[in-house]
Amino acid sequence: MQYKISRRAVVKGGLIAGALVPAMGMLANTAAAAGLPPLDPNDPTAKALGYTTDASKVNASANPTYKPNQKCATCAQFQGKAGDASGGCNIFAGHSVVQGGWCKVWAQKPAA
Ligand code: SF4
């Protein structure tokens, strides 16, 4: 039995596969972040770095580097996307942090 595959079918298949690969990667990233357990503020490392789930409640006198506009969502270490409620953090690998959280390692996310 012989199958004839047209050039059009090959090109069409390639275009579909090319479109699906990035979409699958995005889904995998979202699923990976969604599967991360939330970081416990009482975790020893989190405590040492002053992690809180609510940046608006940071004690500014105890954390002189803190500025009111700082939160995980604007931090270079935050791995979530804009609008995500939480996401991974490069500092706290294996855990998710709240987008409105904060810790002493905060550093401005570069402009996109
Ligand atoms: S390093 Fe940045 S993203 Fe991670 S917990 Fe601290 S402020 Fe949030």
Summarize the structure.
This protein has 112 residues and is mainly α. It has helices at residues 7-34, 44-48; strands at 86-88, 96-98.
Which homologous superfamily in CATH is the superfamily of the largest domain? High potential iron-sulphur protein
Shape: elongated
Spatial order of the strands in the main sheet?
Answer: 1-2
**What is the number of helices?**
2
Written as H for each helix and E for each strand, in order along the chain, the element string is HHEE
Q: Per CATH, which architecture of the largest domain? A: Irregular
Please describe the topology of this protein.
Blueprint: H1 7-34, H2 44-48, E1 86-88, E2 96-98
Antiparallel strand pairs: 1-2
Residues 51, 72, 75, 77-78, 89, 91-92, 97, 101-103, 105-106 line the site of iron/sulfur cluster.
What does this structure look like?
There is one protein chain. By secondary structure, this protein is mostly helical. Helix content is 29%, strand content 5%. It is built from two helices and two strands; from the N terminus they run ααββ. The chain has a two-stranded antiparallel ribbon. The N and C termini lie far apart (54 Å). Bound molecules: iron/sulfur cluster.
Provide the descriptors you would attach to this structure in a database record:
elongated; High-Potential Iron-Sulfur Protein, Chain A; 2 helices; binds iron/sulfur cluster; mainly alpha; 2 domains; two-stranded antiparallel sheet; 2 strands; 112 residues
